[in-house]
Amino acid sequence: MRVRYAPEYRTSAQALGSVLxxxxxxxxxxxxxxxxxxxxxxxxxxxxxxxLLVVTVLLNVRGRDVGSFVDEARRVIAEKVSLPAGSYVExxxxxxxxxxxxxxxxxxxxxxLLVIYLLLYLTYRSFLDAAQVLLAVPFALAGGIYLLYxxxxxxxxxxWVGFIALFGTAVQTAVVMVIYxxxxxxxxxxxxxxxLTREALLEAVKEGALLRLRPKVMTVCTVVASLLPIMWxxxxxxxxxxxxxxxxxxxxxxxxxxxxIVTPVIFSWLRxxxxxxxxxxxxxxxxNHEPRPAMGPADWRQQGG
Length: 305
Description:
Layout: H1 13-17, E1 20-22, E2 28-30, E3 47-49, E4 52-54, H2 66-80, H3 94-124, H4 127-134, H5 136-151, H6 157-191, H7 198-232, H8 238-284, H9 297-304
Antiparallel strand pairs: 1-2, 3-4
Helix pairs in contact: 3-4, 3-6, 4-8, 5-6, 5-8, 6-7, 6-8, 7-8
């Protein structure tokens, strides 16, 4: 409760102490005889939230992520700080926003991967081919994580947004590589009159991978060249753009090895399995290997004489 007298009665402690107040017996008594009047420093504003008094402690975390700092601070406060009865501690600000974003990303990222896989399955009509292309994601993820570690960035919302953008780009480049390989295998099969051998398959995969080499390197170089100015920037907003661009930059470089080396190997292995399956089916249906039909009772009677 704040009581404010007229200016002439509150210019000094002596003036305020000379103010007359009525005692219970009806006499006028100076306020100085009832209270100790002095100047003290106090809060300019009393904060409240949810009907309770609030004391705010402002922190500026540097050199580490906010989430790990809050987890450690909670443990230390619980061990070393004794709170008065009815008091409790809550963490808000950037940490609260980060918790909400993390909960949302825990739903968004699996949905993104699931949608990418479903689109790949609708494209190839094969679970194995879709999984083969989706392998670009962990390779790109590894490159982004290594670059984040090398530059000393902590995981944040901007970093996860960068990873989501990286997932789409990495899968797209892997899809283009598979298209090149499919076209090379189709040309080789046509040249051989519709029959494809393992040696011809390996040769076709090499030709398709070499055709994709220059476009893939150009794509990676373009992405790196477009992101390097952000990494060198020190202007306003660079503290947000750098963590966002770092996963894309590192992931594109690491996915280059996947698309040019791992994807052709996996593609060749899957197509070789298909060739072996076709060969087994062909041997199983060959005229010399067809099983004789079972004899019925009429056949036994006919051969009985």
